[in-house]
Amino acid sequence: MFFKQVQRNAAKNRKGNGLFFSSLIIAIVAFYTLLSLGDQDVMRYLATVESDAVAKLMALLPVVYAVSLFFVFFLVYFACKYQTDSRRRELGMYLMLGMKRSRMFLMLFCETLWSSVISLLIGLPAALFLTEGISLATAKVVGLGIIGHHFSLSLQAIFWTVCGYVFVQLLSMLVICVGLSRMAPADLLCSGDVKKQKLLSGGKSTALFALGACCLLAAYYLGIFRMRGLDLMTLLVLVIFGILGTFLLYRGLGGMLGGRIRRRNAKAVGLSVFTARQVQENVLSQHKSLAVSSLLLLMALSCISYGISMVTGRSTSSRSVDFSLFGEEEQIDAALEKDGVREMVKETYPLYLSSVKDGYFRDEEKAFDTGEMEKALGAIEGSENIIENLHIEYVIAESSYNRILKNVGKEELKLSAHEAAIYTSIGNDGDFGSILSKATGSKISIGIDGISYDIRPTLYMDNVVADRAITIYMALIVPDELFLQLAGEPKAYCRNVSLSDTVVEDMGLMQAVQKTDALLADTGIEYDSYLGGIGRNLFYTVAASYLSIYLGVLFWLIANTVIGLKYLIGQRRTKRRYETLTMLGADAQSMCHSVKKQIGTYFFLVLCTALVSSAAAIFTMFTSFTKLPAGVSVQTVALLSAVALVIFAGIEMLYIGIVKRTAVREICRIEITDRR
């Protein structure tokens, strides 16, 4: 009989609180998706090419898991509190009829465990389906779809998901039961006291509201106009002003709303004054919750925007070279003639690249006359750091770079005798490339041993090796005759290898590179592989975008749950007001309209501040201490962010609609009960 009652009560709770039961299922899915990351196809692949980075990421997951548990605890606590508050009279009747408190608490814990089992039975299969979809989608996006997909079921992820979820459920119920143990049956039988408000004078409310707005504006100003790079002191002041301003704004908002209501009283009709007073009371009593929810939404939108930008930019690197082999000519020739390797290779060519210090200018401090370039850079805003560090490290033979351009399908250079071009391998990092491109586009020249060489207006950035065996700040691509003069005794830096088009077409790029990589590994020769660049970019995709979007969704879920539950709990505590309205002749339609308007205004007050603060935070993030990834245009990120914002607005409207239906159902129950 006891267990049947537990099952019946748990089913009733799920049916009457479906929105928040769904939120708990989403939390389960989030836990498993995070914890099973290491067993997904993409991560297993990454472990073969970026093992150290993957190991560090896996070591970070327990920390993210613990942070997630902390936030999910509040989500579960508010959901459980809403359920128990709706059953106050029921619990009071149990005690009045002689049920021991220990048995009542046991019943509540058993209901919690039973609901946990049901939600886990729904959430875990959904999580498994989602992780398989993510694994396949990620592989397709980054060009790894041809790698065989293997179904993965992480028992360890299931274990920790169950443990973490059940732990926060039981801990939440324990905290609630401690509060219930201090209440007499008579206290439970009443509908609950309305929380007393700490009223502020109109002047003080206005002052707090104005002070909060000023703090927020100061934070926006610091972020948009003063934040340059990761300045920890400025960032600390910005965060303090932002948090303090949000709390002060909502603390003074209640008084501001009260003044507006007083000015509207003469024109008020129907329940408009009652609606406005209810909103004011909610703001006054829940101003801390509103501030916390607004900050959580700010964090959610910032994390999601960052994740979108990362997943947009972290595509596979530009494929200009498949392998770069290092060593003596005899060793390289022997490796390329090995059975299996010969059939995979289309062509090889030496890369002639030489350090300036090792050649013609090795005994001179200033090898090149870069006066015109410095002058061109000086006319560009933000180029001070480039001018201070302006130096040319290497020279590259034109014929070698033309082979690279040919491989990527670009037009060859065809330099004249007194012409050169600027190359950099870090051109896409931050503002460096854009500033340098503007400088080279203004018809400048560089002096070499008293002779002026015109610089091509195009900045060249295609990889000269398969991966990052060498990082070149700035190099000069020169005609072969000039290279021989500057390099002294030229020696090939490495031998670049391109795979056969037929092999790539038959096997697919990734499988062809993997097979050749395995064959070269057996030769013992040192080499650099295009596979390494793919692995690094894919790791950034998973580490940056995956975790950022995960945390963003988690913050978003918790913020919405806090807003909705706080309102519904407050409405239940003011239930007698709606009963009084019913006795005074108010119909259900008018009260339902009032409730819907209250909820819309309540959510709007949170979303309005969150959206404005998020816009400033995202702008600061991408213009200061975090740069857009290489090759990502602002327009692309803005477009995707706009799509994400539309989806965000759609889900918010759906969530608000569900909260409205829940609140309206409560009002209709009051009206029906009193009419009988």
The average pLDDT value, as a whole number, equals 78
Q: Structural class, judged by helices and strands?
A: alpha+beta
Whole-Å distance between the termini?
32 Å
Helix content: 55-70%
Compute the number of helices.
25
* Spatial strand order of the main sheet: 3-5-9-6-8-7-4
Radius of gyration, whole Å: 33 Å
Quick one: biggest sheet?
Answer: 7 strands, mixed
Number of strands: 11
Strand content: 5-15%
Task: Explain how this protein is built.
There is one protein chain. The chain has helices at residues 2-16, 18-35, 41-49, 51-85, 88-96, 101-141, 155-181, 185-189, 202-226, 232-264, 272-285, 287-313, 329-336, 341-344, 371-378, 384-388, 398-407, 432-440, 480-487, 501-507, 509-521, 530-573, 575-583, 588-623, 634-675, and strands at 323-326, 345-351, 353-355, 368-369, 394-397, 419-423, 445-448, 451-455, 475-478, 494-499, 526-529. Helix 3 (41-49) runs antiparallel to helix 4 (51-85), helix 3 (41-49) crosses helix 22 (530-573) and helix 12 (287-313) packs antiparallel against helix 25. Strand 7 and strand 8 form a beta hairpin. The protein has 25 helices and eleven strands. It has three domains: 1-190, no CATH class; 196-318 and 529-676, no CATH class; 323-528, no CATH class. The chain is α+β, with helices and mostly antiparallel strands and 676 residues long. Mean pLDDT is 78; it is low at 672-676. Helix content is 68%, strand content 7%. A seven-stranded mixed beta sheet has the order 3-5-9-6-8-7-4. Strands 2-10-1-11 form a four-stranded antiparallel beta sheet, with helices on both faces.
